Amino acid sequence: MKILQDDHAAVHLLGMEMPNVALNATDGTIVDLRGGGLSVVYVYPRTSPPGGSNIHGWNEIPGARGCTPQSCAFRDHFGGLRRLGVSQLFGLSTQDTEYQKEAVSRLHLPFPLLSDKSLSLATALNLPTFKAGGLTLLKRLTIIVEDGLIKHVFYPVHSPDTNANAVIAWLKANYRS
What we know:
Blueprint: E1 22-25, E2 30-32, E3 38-43, H1 67-76, H2 78-83, E4 86-93, H3 97-107, E5 113-115, H4 120-125, E6 129-132, E7 135-138, E8 141-146, E9 149-154, H5 163-174
Parallel strand pairs: 3-4, 4-5
Antiparallel strand pairs: 1-2, 1-5, 3-8, 6-7, 8-9
């Protein structure tokens, strides 16, 4: 497996305002990330359907694996993130909302996933992407948004299963709730 390198494709995000983009959420709402409060958005390439059937060569793509462990870690730390002042937690991928609903149910996520199937947010923020299996997918990153402004970016995310811990450590060091 290849080592994940920092290609600096997300440095421009720090300090950016969230664009006026409405995203479908798995809880049936439409989400605008410009809203107030403190939000965490972890961006991931895609979850595989139950039983597997990954895209051919998925395991060889640096940074592709780990979407389920990342989601489960954020699930397991949801209460702690709330206690640290996070008002909204979202996962974001290019998969459609119906597909994401299955993942929310199967993984028992207490927060919604957002669909950027149209790549509207990805385009507006110039998020890093890659192609696999004929699909344009988002590279894994996590952003901290406060009152519509990107305050911190975790990129690249080397260990998806410990990304939630890194977010918590950053929040503890930078916010007092």
